[in-house]
Amino acid sequence: MAWSRCNTAGLAPVLLLLAAGLVAACAAPPAGEGLPPAAGPAAAPVAVAGTLLRIASLPALIADARKQMALEAPRSALGYLDTAVRLNAEDASPQRAEVLSLRAEVLLATGQPARALADVDDAIAVKDDIAAYYVLRAAALFSLRRPADAVAALDRAIGLTPDEAPYHLLRAKVLLVIGRTDAALADFGAYGARQGGLHNGFQRAIVQHLQRNYHAAIAEYDNVLTQETGETPGSRTAVTRLMRGFAHHQAGHFDAAARDYGAVLAIRPDWDFVRAPRERARKQIPFGPAVEA
To answer: What is the CA radius of gyration of the chain?
Structure first.
């Protein structure tokens, strides 16, 4: 999980928690301590003041949590967000949904997917049209070893924002895990098509690939890569090499597949999902024909 939303330091969590405690004490003084609770008409100003204090504190808590996330200090961020959730327990606003989704993100980063899932489900119950919430839900479900449910969550995210390329890449990865190779290929294709300026040959290659015309698909991928010669390798080139690697692998060209997978990892070392097929291809090389890539 990337912590790059802000780049400034936040207040120390202990100071914020002390301040939040004071706010909570002012908003709702316990019965039997100090003056007795207000009753009747006098209760209204107290209730209004408490509500205003909670509303005023929420943006500050969110801002400071984001600062801690930017500093890659998820546990400090969690302190702010726990306080925000407590102070606004009865709020059903989009801002509360944002707090819950942020806390879900932090909980995932600290290895607590079950709690993250509960938070993001609560966020969705408040606001169900934010694609990023479903991506978080998918991440939590995948961490809980429920990949089929993760795909369903990504389906919803992509339904809300079909042109968001990274969502197609995420779904492709999960589809590969559960053995839905053709669907994964289609999503890799959708990801590639949304990289901007992609050559038309890529779409022709995808069509051939999904029809299992592997040699024709490889020829089209070759043409695309030839047209990209001289460009700085990036995600667009990486996805083309990846797709050609899949086509080589499915055609039994294991050595060429392994080379393509290696080229992908050289461009995108963060694409860990490519490592397993590369190792499989390497082990299969003695059983397949040598093909120039």
So the answer is: 25
Q: Report pLDDT for 15.
A: 27
CB 108 within 8 A of CB 141: no
Burial class (CB in 10 A: 0-12, 13-18, 19+), 248: buried
Cα distance between residue 246 and residue 277, in whole Å: 9
Residues 111 and 206 in one domain: no
In a domain, 46, yes or no: no
Neighbours of 75 (CB within 10 A): 11
Contact at 8 Å (CB) between 281 and 254?
yes
User: What would the pLDDT profile of 82-103 be if each residue is shown by its tens digit?
Assistant: 777 777 666 667 778 888 888 8
Q: What is the DSSP letter of 89?
A: T
Nearest 5°: phi and psi at 20? -65, -35
Range of the domain at 146: 13-21+57-162
Q: How far is CA 159 from CA 134, 202, 239, in A?
A: 10, 23, 22
Number of domains in the chain: 2
For the ranges 18-32, 96-110, 196-210, 277-291, the one whose mean pLDDT is highest: 96-110
Q: Is 212 left (phi over 0), alpha (psi -120 to 50) or beta?
A: left
Mean pLDDT of 209-229: 86
| Residues 122 and 200 both lie in one domain | no
CATH code at position 98: 1.25.40.10
Q: Which letter does DSSP use for residue 251 in this model?
A: T
* Six token digits for residue 190: 């959708």
